[in-house]
Amino acid sequence: MSHIQTQTEWEEEMSIKILQFIRNELYLDLRFMEQALAALEYRRIDGLSTFATDGTCLYYANEPVHRIFKSNAKFLNRAYLHSVFHCIFRHLWMKGKREKNRWNLACDIAVEYTIDALEKPCTKRILSWSRQHIYEEIRQEKSGLSAAVIYRLLEEKTEEELQSLAMEFYTDDHRFWQEEEQKTPMYQQAKENWDKIARQTTLEQNRRGEDTEDGEEVFAAQVKAGKSRRRYSDFLRKFSVLSEELHCDLDEFELGFYSYGLRLYGNLPLIEPVETKEVHKIREFVIVLDTSYSTSGELISGFLQETLRILTEKNSFFVKSKIRILQCDNQVRREEILQNEADIKRLLQSLAGEHGMSQQSLAGKRDISQQKSAGVYEISGGGSTDFRPAFAYVNQLLEQGELQNLGGLLYFTDGKGTYPKKPPQYKTAFLFLDDYDETAVPPWAMRLQLEPEEWIHEH
Hints:
This protein folds into 2 domains: 7-226, no CATH class; 282-454, von Willebrand factor, type A domain (Rossmann fold, 3-Layer(aba) Sandwich), CATH 3.40.50. It has 14 helices and 11 strands. It has helices at residues 7-29, 34-37, 62-71, 73-88, 100-118, 129-141, 147-154, 159-169, 185-207, 214-236, 255-265, 297-313, 341-352, 388-400, and strands at 41-44, 52-53, 57-60, 241-246, 276-290, 317-328, 332-338, 364-366, 408-413, 428-432, 446-449. Strands 4, 5, 6, 7, 8, 9, 10 and 11 form an 8-stranded mixed sheet that branches. Strand 5, helix 12 (297-313) and strand 6 form a beta-alpha-beta unit. Helix 5 crosses helix 8 and helix 5 (100-118) packs across helix 10. It is globular, with a radius of gyration of 26 Å.
């Protein structure tokens, strides 16, 4: 006897067909987003009034999908694309320490701004006065377009204004966005998957060889802002070295036989674990902070926080490691030495303003300009920019034997200064705050342009 389809099964089948129809309609207008539009698995959850996503699934409920498709199908198109854009712009994984409701609203505005800028037939709508007004405020900021920039703009709004904007821009449900402390392996896997999709979408957009429309430039700017952190994290790996470290290498022995021996003979395993494992980690390198008049203390602190957070997150340190932090404008003003992760955590606390840091809190710390610490992280400098003194100081440390396993030097700067003519004997990278003059940078130096707006206020 053939199966008789129930009402629930029919509704489920119709919902899937509607979602597939929406995806196909979006694809016709946004062909470079083929992979992104198909990346989310459909999953029904009763009780939802709109779409929701966790980066892996697109959640929906049958009743609102059917009802809205009949009355306002274009809204479903926008809502579907809205959730996909949250993923491709990495909004689910970038909240950091920001206030939750304001961050959700900033992400919604950033996505809706992009959809409205695209002006595609399948998603185009008349802009309300409220939308036009906030969009003009964003453009006048001239700080780029990203959820982080919009979040700072919203900090100046009253509670009544925030509620009005939330009603205007609410599109999808963010209930499945995980907090920082709730990270799971699936959460991390989804993040990495969308990193790849974002890169491939950008490549596909460029590959078409067509003139980029204004709305697509807005989309590209959002993707670029979201990938800045990942690019910098990958960049830091170039300063790691392959070496052996003493710890149990679980890849090199059979744990089952090891445990069996312990059970059978008491304290005698059948196979001794390999005591070393080759790993890529940081051995020793120097970070130089440009503290000239043209760089702000907020940017310097934000960069240092982001760098140290990435290092501790990725377990990048050997047991015996050393990072020197130099502050330099036209001369080396200050030096700090971090010998382990405990030193890094203390410095991170200082940068976050949570605890004052005494003169003895780091294993080694010298204020070369003889300025006294005020108990929190202090920026020393304010003169013109000259990169040469920092290199001369590092070369001196090498000659004196204080630096023996130098992996390289990172120089955080706006790029407006005098570069050394002679290449050093170690890897060097200049990390730029903004656009910089390519012709002025020595050919021997690595270079990376950062997008600090995405991480400066996250900690």
